[in-house]
Design a protein that fits this description.
The chain contains six helices and eleven strands. The chain is of the alpha/beta class. The chain has a domain of 193 residues: Rossmann fold. The strands form three sheets. It has a seven-stranded mixed sheet with strand order 5-4-3-6-7-11-10, with helices on both faces. The chain has a two-stranded antiparallel sheet with strand order 1-2. A two-stranded antiparallel ribbon has the order 8-9. Strand 8 and strand 9 form a beta hairpin. The longest helix is centred in the first third of the chain and has 14 residues. It binds S-adenosylmethionine. S-adenosylmethionine binds next to helix 2 and strand 4.
């Protein structure tokens, strides 16, 4: 496993002076208690820290993206989205980096309530919380209107990763960037996804190559994936101007299902997954 040293991003917000700290803390506690798995991101409010299920991993993700320059350090004037925002730590970071609009989408109302609360508490007006699923996001945001989409910690939660990637593509301007963070297997020779049996909410655990392949098949160019920890990777791909090559079997309302290029009949493309070492006992 390749280990790369980099610094996590820092949390740039502090509570405005004269904020009623006790009532902010009480509301954060109430929102955390109302959610099945509690509060999401650990947030430094200044006078107090609210610990969350996901800790400060969101700052590590931002640091990894900065380290490999997978996203720009400034987002001035950009229209971006944070898909699966949970508490909104990353949505607010993008707002702080100058994004004009940050659509913050989550399918769980209690998660989105945390993001709404965080945005209003820190006066991050660019953040626009939206309740919904990634599969329907093209009905909520104007097609081809976004410069960048952050898709952190969600790919492996999807039953249908291809449909999710395709839905996001429809929102990006040509040349716009999809930024991924995912649980994954560090394997760039075999393209497969382990079935996760819903372990910690995981449907699929793709390999690094599988993530790149899925992006290419869903109409993204130049995908890159880098591992920054055990089974943790970040990736970047750019919306291509080409049509996606294959549409049959894809759960999407296409007008025309004909293949755009000949499909392969070469069995060697299905390089088998490596055999796992036998367990003890
Ligand atoms: C592991 S958290 C990631 C939070 C944040 N993006 C991060 O990286 O720290 C996954 C979030 O994605 C949301 N989510 C999962 N599947 C989704 C879907 N199909 N549409 C919208 N949100 C989804 C979950 O509700 C949860 O809040």
């Amino acid at each position: 496993m390749s280990k790369t040293a980099f610094s996590p991003a820092s949390w740039p917000f502090s509570l405005p002076v004269e904020t009623p700290v006790d009532s902010i803390q009480a509301e954060a506690d109430r929102l955390g208690a109302a959610s099945q798995y509690g509060w999401g991101h650990t947030i430094d409010f200044g006078p107090f820290r609210k610990e969350g299920l996901l800790g400060e991993d969101y700052l590590t993700i931002a640091g990894a993206l900065d380290h490999w320059a997978f996203w720009p350090t400034r987002l001035d004037g950009m229209r971006v989205a944070d898909i699966g925002c949970f508490t909104g730590g990353l949505s607010l970071l993008m707002a702080h980096r100058g994004a004009e609009v940050v659509y913050a989408l989550d399918e769980i109302p209690e998660h989105l309530a945390q993001c709404e609360f965080l945005a209003s508490t820190f006066d991050a007006r660019a953040v626009r919380p939206m309740l919904g699923t990634v599969y329907k996001i093209h009905e909520m945001i104007q097609p081809s209107s976004l410069d960048l989409i952050l898709f952190a910690g969600v790919l492996y939660h999807l039953s249908d990763m291809l449909v999710g990637l395709h839905a996001l593509r429809s929102l990006l301007k040509p040349g716009g960037s999809l930024i991924i963070q995912s649980n994954a297997v560090e394997d760039f020779e075999h393209s497969y996804a382990n079935f996760g049996r819903f372990f910690a909410g995981t449907w699929w655990q793709p390999t690094g190559l599988c993530i790149k392949d899925m992006c290419e098949h869903m109409g993204y160019a130049d995908p890159e994936v880098k591992f920054y920890g055990t089974n943790l990777c970040v990736g970047r791909a750019v919306r291509s101007t080409d049509e996606i090559p294959f549409r049959r079997g894809l759960n999407w309302p296409f007008d025309d299902l004909r293949d755009r290029r000949p499909r392969t009949l070469d069995w060697s493309i299905l390089a088998p997954a490596p055999r796992q070492p036998p367990g003890k006992g």
